[in-house]
Automatic annotation (TrEMBL):
Residues 6-74 form the HTH gntR-type domain. This is HTH gntR-type domain-containing protein. PANTHER family: TRANSCRIPTIONAL REGULATOR, GNTR FAMILY, UXU OPERON TRANSCRIPTIONAL REGULATOR. Keywords: DNA-binding, Transcription, Transcription regulation. It comes from Staphylococcus carnosus (strain TM300). It comes from the Bacteria. The lineage of its organism: Bacteria, Bacillati, Bacillota, Bacilli, Bacillales. InterPro entries: GntR_C, TF_FadR/GntR_C, Tscrpt_reg_HTH_GntR, WH-like_DNA-bd_sf, WH_DNA-bd_sf. GO terms for molecular function: DNA binding; DNA-binding transcription factor activity.
Amino acid sequence: MKISKTKIYEKIADIILEQIKSGEYAVGDKLPSIQALSKEYGVSVASVREAFNALRTIGVIEIKQGYGTFVTQKEPVFFNLEESSLTRKQVEDLLELREIVELATVKKAAELGTEENLLELKTALEMMESAVADGTSGEAADLKFHLAIAKAAQNSMLFDLMNNISDVIQETMKETRKMYLFNKQRTLKRLYDEHLKIYEAIEQRDVEAAENNMRLHLEEVQDTILQNMATK
């Protein structure tokens, strides 16, 4: 079966995910090799590899170097509280803390950010853009972006506060991006665009726009996480 060349890795990932859900590939089964799937679908090896990376991110396959790729579960699991170090209340508290702190930092960043700060933000954005292109989750770049905003606020205590909770923030970012990988309404491109708008407002020293764009982004993140938290 040949497939079109638009968003190739997403199409491949969707096909394989449906095959897993339907039982064509059972839990524990070994998937065909990247090379075999590349030939079957008429696409590049790189595209199949990106699809595998996306499926691994949402937990349905495991890639064992030297052995192959195996199905680990039928359905993606988004933010399973039993596997997370956080309780639901802690996640809710963290999201509230992020909103309080990050709305303050982004305003200061728009007022006081330096060229060096803007360069750091731009670098993080480029890392996020690469994640959109290759199908990886990109939470490290996401965290780097938000920490760079805190740094641009020119308040060492605000930065230290963000840095001290960075591990749990990154955990929620990772889970958010899993959800975006396989949600037709919430795409990684949309997530990237939200960050781009924040960056552009900071670059233009538009305090109001920076705060508004950050608020919209954090509200979207909060809705995505709380609506998809698995408690099995």
